[in-house]
Amino acid sequence: EDQVTQSPEALRLQEGESSSLNCSYTVSGLRGLFWYRQDPGKGPEFLFTLYSAGEEKEKERLKATLTKKESFLHITAPKPEDSATYLCAVRKIGTGNQFYFGTGTSLTVIP
Amino acid sequence: DAGVIQSPRHEVTEMGQEVTLRCKPISGHDYLFWYRQTMMRGLELLIYFNNNVPIDDSGMPEDRFSAKMPNASFSTLKIQPSEPRDSAVYFCASSFSLDRPKYFGAGTRLSVL
């Protein structure tokens, strides 16, 4: 069964305490993996796209990596403004439903 | 560009009433998506359009839901009749292609009493 699982569900970090969020997937025929950030009361905001295993993308304190089974979003020296829910989404090849979103990791960075 | 624009931002209605949600995608984007987000189920794809044509509506919960895209700059999602279990945040998103990222609107928070 095609599935996207994010862990942990919630994460509390002290400001400056680096960590990683995980997105594991079991879809066959991956066409792309997307990371989004969602603030309360807003729509998801696009962060990164990864298309193949080994690929990495960086933006400020965030770095996304991709393997054949999972993706990590590494947060280096986080700040309170990084607090948000981080969603990953997968697009697969094929017919029918080609898009799967994880349920997200709620990140809280404490000053 | 102003991004994806949704209206209304909030909608409170009574069970049995018709609800219409509206979306203006980013100009030049060929794909438009309607999502529903709840705490229990997360983000669910309801339907998506390519060049104004519905491509996959397998996520539409039942016949009470319908969506249209009469032109490249406007889409509606209609619920008739509405039920309390339809209460959720509904997002519209658009993109250049299926392989490119989606850009989401701010959402419509629907409460059906």
Helicity range of chain A: under 10%
Helical content class of chain B: under 10%
Number of strands of chain B: 11
What's the pLDDT, averaged over the residues of chain A? 93
The number of helical elements of chain A comes to: 0
Flag low-confidence runs of chain A: none
Order of helices and strands of chain A: EEEEEEEEEEE
> Beta-strand level of the residues of chain A, as a percent range?
over 45%
Main beta sheet strand tally, sense and closure of chain B: 7 strands, mixed
Work out the helix count of chain B. Answer: 0
Low-confidence stretches of chain B: none
Strand-pairing-aware structural class of chain B:
mainly beta
Distance between the termini of chain B: 36 Å
SSE class of chain A: mainly beta
The most extensive interface, with participating residues per chain, is: A-B, 23 and 20 residues
Query: What is the H/E order of chain B?
Result: EEEEEEEEEEE
Largest sheet of chain A: 6 strands, mixed
Rounded to an integer, what's the Rg of chain B over CA atoms?
A: 13 Å
* Radius of gyration based on Cα positions of chain A: 14 Å
Principal-axes shape call of chain A: globular
Layout: helices, strands, pairs:
The complex is a heterodimer of chains A (111) and B (113).
Chain A (H helix, E strand, L loop, with lengths): L3 E4 L2 E5 L4 E7 L4 E9 L6 E6 L5 E4 L2 E5 L3 E6 L8 E9 L6 E3 L3 E6 L1
Parallel strand pairs in A: 2-11
Antiparallel strand pairs in A: 1-3, 3-8, 4-5, 4-9, 6-7, 7-8, 9-10, 9-11
Chain B lengths: L4 E3 L2 E4 L5 E6 L6 E8 L3 E9 L2 E4 L8 E7 L2 E6 L8 E8 L7 E2 L3 E5 L1
Parallel strand pairs in B: 2-11
Antiparallel strand pairs in B: 1-3, 3-8, 4-5, 4-9, 5-6, 7-8, 9-10, 9-11
If you had to describe this structure to a student in words, what would you say it looks like?
The complex is a heterodimer of chains A (111) and B (113). Chain A is an all-beta fold and 111 residues long. Helices cover 0% and strands 58% of the residues of chain A. Chain A has strands at residues 4-7, 10-14, 19-25, 30-38, 45-50, 56-59, 62-66, 70-75, 84-92, 99-101, 105-110. In chain A, strands 2, 4, 5, 9, 10 and 11 form a 6-stranded mixed beta sheet that branches. A 5-stranded antiparallel beta sheet of chain A has the order 1-3-8-7-6, with no helix packed on it. In chain A, a hairpin with a 6-residue loop joins strand 4 (30-38) and strand 5 (45-50). Chain B is mainly beta and 113 residues long. Helix content of chain B is 0%, strand content 55%. In chain B, a hairpin with a 2-residue loop joins strand 5 (42-50) and strand 6 (53-56). In chain B, 37% of the residues are buried. Chain A binds chain B through residues 31-32, 34, 36, 41-46, 49, 51, 87, 89, 91, 96-99, 101-104, and chain B through 4, 42-45, 56, 58-59, 91, 93, 98-107.
